[in-house]
Amino acid sequence: GENVEQHPSTLSVQEGDSAVIKCTYSDSASNYFPWYKQELGKGPQLIIDIRSNVGEKKDQRIAVTLNKTAKHFSLHITETQPEDSAVYFCAAIPSTSGTYKYIFGTGTRLKVLA
Amino acid sequence: NAGVTQTPKFQVLKTGQSMTLQCAQDMNHNSMYWYRQDPGMGLRLIYYSASEGTTDKGEVPNGYNVSRLNKREFSLRLESAAPSQTSVYFCASSGRNPSYNSPLHFGNGTRLTVT
User: Which pLDDT value is given to residue B40?
Assistant: First the structure.
């Protein structure tokens, strides 16, 4: 069935360094790829998303890249700060299935070391 | 603007007890969802409501029931709680009809422990 694999499960970086989280999806019909950040004790919050007609999208220190041929997409955080420490989830949604068909990755716990 | 509000934040139940988790959104969203989050499993969809008056099963519906009370409110009921239902439960909403992909807006969760 449809699946999203996310790596790594944990990631530690020094403050100021970059962090990269990768996801691979199985359904080639997927066309919407959001990323969520979850802080301790809170619900996931959307931080950036990308649609299949775009290869890259940036928002300040955050960027997402999409490779439809290889069926993978990545989150890039530059100049990391302690407040970036959180769990990050990727998701993929097949174009024909709607929002209720979000398939989430299993999450990456990012620690930014001061 | 509160967004998505869930109550209670924490709950401990004994096996066999029942309870209802409440969720309300003030964003005038059409669609609402219930997810559970377990370590290493990501987020799994329990039930969703595409619009007021409709509900459908998600990936893991067994042991749960839902009610879309009105456009704002979507509740999740455990009729006879089991230890396997120990989890963090998240309610979410999205603005458009589910046939159009749109971002999910999550509440802050209910942490449920069943002993």
Answer: 77
Inter-chain CB proximity A98 and B99 less than 8 Å = yes
What are B87's two structure tokens? 């989890």
Tokens of A95: 């174009």
pLDDT tens digits for B49-104?
A: 988 889 999 989 999 999 999 999 999 999 999 999 999 999 999 876 655 667 89
Give the SS3 label for residue A98: coil
End-to-end CA distance of chain A: 41
Query: Which residues are within 8 A (CB) of B39 and not within 5 positions of it... i.e. 6 or more apart?
Result: none
Query: Considering only CA atoms, which of A99, A105, A32, A24 is closest in space to residue A69?
Result: A24
Can you say whether residue B30 is alpha, beta or left, with left for phi > 0 and alpha for psi between -120 and 50 degrees?
Answer: alpha
| Average pLDDT taken over every residue of chain B | 92
Cα–Cα nearest to B74, from B108, B111, B48 = B48
The answer to whether the Cβ–Cβ distance between B100 and A99 falls below 8 Å is yes
Q: Which residues pair with A16 in a beta bridge?
A: none
